[in-house]
Structure formats: structure tokens, C-alpha cells
Amino acid sequence: MQLSLQHLTKRYPGGKLGLSDFSAEIGPGVLGLLGPNGAGKSTLMRILATITRPTSGRVLADGTDIGSQPDAVRNVLGYLPQDFGVYGNLTAVEFLAYIAALKGLGGKGTRQRIETLLDEMNLATVRGNPISSFSGGMRQRIGIAQALLNDPRLLILDEPTVGLDPQERVRFRNLLAHLAGERIVILSSHIVSDIETIADEIVVMHEGRLLARGTAATLRQAAEGRTFECVVGTARLDDLKGRHIVSRVSRHNGDWQVRYLLRNGVAAEPASTPVDATLEDAYLVLTGGGAA
Ligand SMILES: Nc1ncnc2c1ncn2[C@@H]1O[C@H](COP(=O)(O)OP(=O)(O)OP(=O)(O)O)[C@@H](O)[C@H]1O
Ligand SMILES: [Mg+2]
After folding, report:
1. What gap in Å lies between CA 244 and CA 262, rounded to an integer?
2. What does pTM read for this prediction?
3. Separation between Cα atoms, residue 89 and residue 76, nearest integer Å
4. Ligand 1, atom 9, residue with closest C-alpha
5. What is the pLDDT of residues 161-172, one digit of tens each?
């Protein structure tokens, strides 16, 4: 499947801009949407899932306009919304069977599929327990499982790693790598390391716009040559924060070890050491800073 996103703009009632002239071509593979709160990640995903319509612009799925023919997407879609609510009195198995029925799936194959997904999501041992007894991470995993029920060709996961512990993150990453193949997988997060390890390609979003797109390695170049570390006393710390984008501050023998990124046209602090840029550094440069 190929998605063609053409000049998508979404203006909400009240005037808030969710998305602003956003264009992209998306093919098979795992695409990560990375952006701070309010960047427009969920808005974009809801448009692709045909939950919301853009104010202007259009999306073509293999050439078909999904605005006039939403079934072009709905028939092949798996979607995990950010605010995923579940029916707490149902057990894990009952819930997945219920969602399967809503999706028009049934029969022996579906029961088998439910068991396989419970297994893959590490929920097999709690399959008969009510979802109300699940932890946040377990709920998230049942949310991912329901999105995979119909073996979707387009899988949209809004903040899927929220609440997952480090082991579950690794499991989830492996599952997605295994799933990807001919599918389009789009996931969002504001956790740089999650996106970096899970996605083949990354779109950095800010204020409804596409700021940059590339692999972690190519995006990192945005901070190459402008990432430095130095040690300063408390008196100079605020001053430094005013001049540069500070990405990390830690205690260092009573002083502060600071990692910072140069803004355009600003010189490095005296006695600074250039260091290799990370994707996190590049993300801060691209989005113009933010809290240290
Ligand atoms: N239903 C809505 N009504 C009005 N404004 C909205 C609505 N949904 C989103 N917005 C606004 O649109 C912008 C983008 O929001 P969106 O939820 O798409 O961002 P996001 O990148 O998913 O953020 P987060 O990381 O917090 O999930 C924000 O300014 C938000 O306030
Ligand atoms: Mg969101």
C-alpha cells in the first residue's frame, strides 16, 4: 500500500490548528512520528484512520481518495487510539472477541488469532482475567493486540509504548520488526529513544508541520558540529541556558556538566568539548529547544 498525503491542514472548531500543509508519501515499513505535545501527531493519525476529516488537502490510498471512499482504508486498518478505553468488566479474551465481531471477523481462525496475539503480547496467563485488574502496560498491550486482529495492511499506533516497561518495549520492537514487511506501520511518540529503536524512518513534527524526515542517522546530522559539553558553575548556568539549547545538565564536583546545542550564529562557550550528536540532540535543534 502507498499513502499520498497532500497538503493536509486541520483547523479545529475554535480556530486551533492541528495540522498545517502537511505532505508526505508513505510506503511499507515502520514510520515514526516524533514531536512534542500538540505537534499534530494524533490529528494526522486520526485523519489517516478516517476518524477525522482534514479542513483541506487529501489522502490517497493506492490512488483512492479516502475522504470520499473511507473503506479503502477502513477495510485494511488496525488502529490504536491514544486515549484507548476498554470495557473493564470483560476478560482479555472476551474483549478481543468483541472487537473481532465489530470488525466482522469470526470463526475458528479468529479464535486462533486471538490466542496467538495474547501469546505475542505476553498476556496468555491473564487471558481470563477482567481488564479492570490489568496494569497500564497490560492495557496498552491488549490495545495493540486489538489493532492487530484483522492482520491490517495499515497499522496506526498512537503512543503505543506509553506504560510499557523496558522488557515490553524490546518485545514490542521485535514484534513490529517482524510484522512490518509489506505493511505500513505508523507510530507516534515523544520519546526519542523509542522512535529511534523502533522506526525505520522518522518524521519530526512541530506545530502541525513536517520539520524533517529521514533515518535516525540522517536526522542526527542536524546537530552534527553543534553539540558541545562544558563544565560551569551555578552562576554561569542560567546565562548559558539563555544562549544555547541545553540538552542535559548533571552535577560535576560541585559544578554543572552541561550538554548544549548551538543556536544559529552563536559561538561555543570557552573550554567546551565537541561531542557526537544523538537523535535527541537533533530533535532539540529541529524543534527549537524546549525545556532542558
Ligand atoms: N478535538 C480538538 N479540538 C480542538 N483542538 C484540538 C483537538 N484535538 C487537537 N487539538 C489541537 O490541535 C493541536 C494538535 O493536537 P494533537 O493532539 O494532534 O497533537 P499531538 O502531537 O498528538 O500531541 P500529544 O503528544 O500531546 O498527544 C493542539 O494544539 C491541540 O490543542
Ligand atoms: Mg497525541
Report:
1. 5
2. 0.91
3. 29
4. 18
5. 888 888 888 888
